[in-house]
């Protein structure tokens, strides 16, 4: 298991720009949506099942429309809308969206969390995770039940950012204001914090 985790992390670090684990989850969701686009659209029971679940959430409807052929998008979105319009015309209770793509993402997150917990003492995995630019959510997942030294090393990746944020805040203090300028890194700290917090 740790061999495939290692391979996945290596790929994500090489191919992706942000958090390696977000990249792996996104890859899984894209593969699923691509599969639905390729042959699922002609699969009537699948279309009915998805429509009954209320279709996809806004983000995954958008993602589907971006990666699928326009005809596939039109067919699928038509079936989602039709279900909702019929529901509305019958005056029924609104259908809650139970997005299958979100479910895929969440299952994928659970399975990575499990394999990370199994491998968090492995030096090679630890080294990869220290290079994986983890977001705040995945930082916590990777640190869960990890050896304390490694967990503190992982969080230590963000010491500079935390320092820049603290300095950004400090320089707003009335005793300092106007006397010390914000550095470029401090000015970037809000944007960098947002990147770290862009969890799902
Ligand atoms: Zn992430
Ligand atoms: Zn979704």
Would you mind describing this structure in some detail?
- By secondary structure, the protein is an all-alpha fold.
- Among the domains are: 2-100, no CATH class; 159-197, no CATH class.
- It has helices at 2-15, 20-38, 44-52, 58-67, 70-89, 100-119, 123-130, 136-143, 148-156, 159-170, 184-197.
- Helix 1 (2-15) packs across helix 2.
- It is globular.
- The model has no long low-confidence stretch (mean pLDDT 93).
- The site of one zinc ion has 7 residues, from helix 2 and helix 8.
What is the tally of helical segments?
Answer: 11
Which spans of ≥5 residues are poorly predicted at pLDDT below 50?
A: none
Count of individual beta strands: 0
Name the average pLDDT: 93
Main sheet overview = none
Order of helices and strands: HHHHHHHHHHH
What small-molecule ligands were found? zinc ion
Radius of gyration: 22 Å
Assembly level: single chain
Beta-strand proportion = under 5%
Structural class: mainly alpha
Q: How much helix, percentage-wise, in residues?
A: over 70%
Describe the global form.
globular
Straight-line N-to-C gap: 25 Å
Fill in the keyword field for this structure.
mainly alpha, 72% helix, globular, binds zinc ion, 200 residues, single chain
């Amino acid at each position: 298991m740790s061999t495939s985790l290692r391979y996945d992390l290596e790929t994500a670090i090489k191919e992706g720009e942000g958090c390696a684990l977000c990249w792996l989850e996104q890859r899984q969701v894209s593969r699923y949506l691509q599969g639905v686009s390729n042959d699922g659209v002609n699969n009537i029971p699948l279309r009915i099942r998805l429509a009954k679940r209320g279709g996809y959430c806004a983000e995954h409807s958008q993602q589907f429309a971006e990666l699928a052929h326009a005809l596939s998008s039109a067919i699928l979105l038509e079936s989602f809308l039709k279900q909702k319009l019929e529901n509305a015309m019958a005056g029924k209770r609104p259908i809650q969206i139970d997005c299958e793509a979100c479910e895929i993402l969440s299952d994928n997150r659970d399975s990575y969390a499990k394999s990370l917990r199994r491998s968090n003492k492995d030096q090679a995995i630890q080294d990869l995770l220290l290079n994986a630019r983890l977001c705040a959510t995945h930082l916590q997942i990777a640190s869960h039940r990890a050896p304390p030294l490694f967990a503190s090393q992982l969080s230590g990746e963000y010491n500079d950012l935390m320092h820049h944020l603290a300095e950004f805040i400090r320089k707003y203090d009335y005793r300092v204001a106007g006397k010390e300028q914000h550095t470029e890194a401090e000015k970037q700290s809000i944007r960098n914090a947002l990147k770290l917090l862009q969890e799902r």
